[in-house]
Amino acid sequence: MPFVSEFPLSIKILCIACGLERPHVFVVRPQSWNGSSFRDRPSDYAVYECQYCKMQRIWPMPTLEALRAFYSSKRRDEPLVTGVRLVANRMWNYYNKYRFLTRFVHSGLVVDVGCGQGYFLETARLAKALGNLGLRFIGTEYDTTAVERLRRRGFDIRIGDIWEVGLEPRSVACFYLCHVLEHLYDPVKSLREMKLLLSNGGYVIIHVPSPDTRPARSQGLKWIMYRLPEHLWFFRDRSAVMLFERLGFRVKYIRETWPINPSHEIRVAAQLVK
Known about the structure:
The chain has 274 residues and is an alpha/beta fold. Helices cover 28% and strands 31% of the residues. The mean pLDDT is 89.
């Protein structure tokens, strides 16, 4: 069972979807998360939900120093997938993500933000070999070990934030963020930076864990995506639409990936309004 709360039942804090300070109600204080598994003790943080748009967020917001300490103490590298069946499942998963992206973006530069071990980039390379759509892919990542590994495999990987990696204004056709936005300390700032780098009619495509998904609803307050402080934001359909629209995007698609990929996520394609 979730731990009994020592947190206030209601607080007024900033909702990034609304862009205003709104009353938020307590949802859950989950078990603490150490980066690889849950510990059998209460977290130092709780999840609160905006009473207006139902956007969920961590509270209190950890400091940047606390987040750096968390990520430095957890295992930074994802375990590399091995075994024929596991590799096939992983590639099928990312091929579906690639197909989704190419429904909206057919040419130009695609930036895989927080590319991790490069599974999406590897899938895109294989798919392009079968039929080049005129897309060019690069990745950004902070993990220097992952960056060096991907560079040895011939990928163009930049270290740092999107504004620091040599991208020209209006040069990007699509920013792709697969389970990245929920980790960002300031998603609004990051999306505004993307706007300046996107070409007219460019896209931001995201995959994020959502309390609206079937696995989340079935697990309730024990939802495994309540990993604090790793996950800072939890997007519902309504709150995701509100966030993008108030920043100058038009949401062209938003839907749970079930049953194609039952991984607690929704995917969103948002186009910059010309």
